[in-house]
Amino acid sequence: MSTDTLIWTAVCAFDDILPNTGVCALVEGRHVAIFRVGPDAFYAIDNVDPKSQASVLSRGLIGSLGDRTVVASPLYKQHYDLRTGACVEDAALSVRAHEVAVRDGRVWVSLT
Known about the structure:
Blueprint: E1 9-13, E2 21-27, E3 30-37, E4 41-46, E5 61-65, E6 68-72, E7 79-81, E8 97-103, E9 106-110
């Protein structure tokens, strides 16, 4: 998808997200978890845990399973691929992944 046709929302300053942590933002009425992995890789997925319906995925632990960068839900411990939103343990629990960009020192998200 061309980034020119996406609607972008500024969510925070680059430095507001510490490396290897996540934050939650309300983007177009949707709870979105934005993660900073390492010094400068950013990912965004829906923040609502599909199993509990709680807005908690931004509080999960970031790690890896094989070649996947994932976040573990703090409630039921399912792992969500930060690139795709796929739930590793149960495809029926997958969440949406969103576009992220860093421009002018700010983190921007576009719902996809």
